[in-house]
Predict the structure.
Amino acid sequence: MSVDESGPTRILKLKTAGGAECEIYLFGATVTKFKTASGKDLIWLSSTAKLDGSKAIRGGIPLVFPQFGQPIKEMAQHGFARNNLWEFKSEKSSDTCVSVCLSLDNTVATHEAWAFPYKLEFDIVLEDFKLTTTYRVINTGPEPFKFQSLQHTYLNVTDISATSVVGLQNERFLDKASADPSALNLDVRAQADIKEFTDRVYVNVNARNNTPIVVKCPTGDIVVHGSAYFNDPANVIPSDTVMWNPWAEKAKGMGDFDDDGYNKMLCIEPGLIADFHVLPPASEMGLVQVLSLVV
Ligand code: TA6
């Protein structure tokens, strides 16, 4: 691992013996790059993203906690985890992988509208064709708290018009782009294309089929496997998946989003967000994302 101290926020740079690369800003513990050993960039980052710590990074894998969206109006959209400086805890390497662990807790970041003791830990494991990111929420206080967490993954699909998503057939979703965002819909498509503004929450995807989502695109077949657990990784609990593309008009309306960026990206976001989750004291809920390229 090497560290780039030149910018306003430290950047950890990981590389495997096979040549895969990963970059992580300590600001928000935001993964901004995952390049496979075959040279394929699986992560999209806006060229106009703010990288100076002034706001959450547009692209990569921003981390959402303790809220998704803005149910607590006094708190920033998607909470405060993605716009605070995390601490580097440890690194490990072997012949086949390189990993780091980062953490954030309430002594660094909190909010008066959600003032509970907590710890977040984020493990990143880089292999030649796989990036495994495990996002743990730990209740370090004496009372239960409610939270939402999500890995807001921006995939580099290269060309959205040549992209389709497999693995969501027969899953139920909330359509935030519709007139009734609280209605549950059924996605019947074996292969879903994205031709317009798309903002969907697929609910409890892993409750039923535990199959990965495959994003078929010019970059290659990008496999996104999201799962969640309570206390023990073997104790799997249902989790959700968000699919988002802002499309042309909304992309133009965001100062840190390339105007044509919507043509090159698609967000597939594993999360615990369909509702708030209650976490008892001395307990943990983990959210695991395995990103890989089918070669
Ligand atoms: O994950 C989808 C979403 O909730 C969209 O509704 C949109 O708001 C997106 O997140 C980006 O949010 P941000 O606060 O990063 O601009």
